[in-house]
Specification:
alpha+beta, 9 helices, 7 strands, 272 residues
Length: 272
Amino acid sequence: MKPYSIRFFISAVMALGFASVACSQDALPINAAASVNGVIISNDAVEQGIQASLSQVQKDSPELRKAVLGKMIEISLLSQQAEKDGLANSDRANSQLALIRQNYLADLELSTYISKNPVTDADVQAEYNREIASLGSQGMIIEYKVSDIAVATEADAQAALARIKKGESFNQVAKSVSLAPNKVQGGAVGWVQAGQTLPQIASVLVTLSKGQVSPAPIQMPQGWYLIKLEDKKSSKPPTFEQAKAAIRKGLMQKKQFEFLSELRQGANIVVR
């Protein structure tokens, strides 16, 4: 059994919590999985921990469920001890708890928005039909092998672009300055279709030749990007059944992007 880190379950603890309700260890409430010194660990919290484990390619099993509950008991013991040691109100704790809460609420807001504005089967079918129609008379899909660099400001992006123009490799600059997780792979994204990317990226991507870097930084909601077209190929389009999962994911990302754009337009954002 792979070991589980304490941090792995923090989101579940923050989301569903350990109810601060004292009760007898012998008389647990209906929705309680366990009680630690009278503090309840809910079945909902355990289930969320299990789902998080399953997303990490773990397989559901009695052993996994036992391990998840055991880890949550350890978390409860440690958090109770932290309270006793006066750590709960420290600046470090308050800062980290605020960040965890902020991240959870952001995820919750996005998931709530998508649940209220779902991508329907009709939306997916219509997008598939549109993409097939856009292929033209040859009916072939164009795919692009892309790398990218993500930075916080336009000035950072211009500095990175200047290094590339002076002869430094895109791969090396990505490893040096990119804020995206794929920086360790030199910014490699892999094969994508233009329609699977956001409009700002797609409009530049289709104009690039093999080996070319975007001539100017691209502004995105989360920062500024440079992209490089590593390679390009054409292939026959997949059937609707083969494509529908990817199309649904792309439409959901588009909805999230549009929602974030609306929030940005109505916000007062100041960046140092």
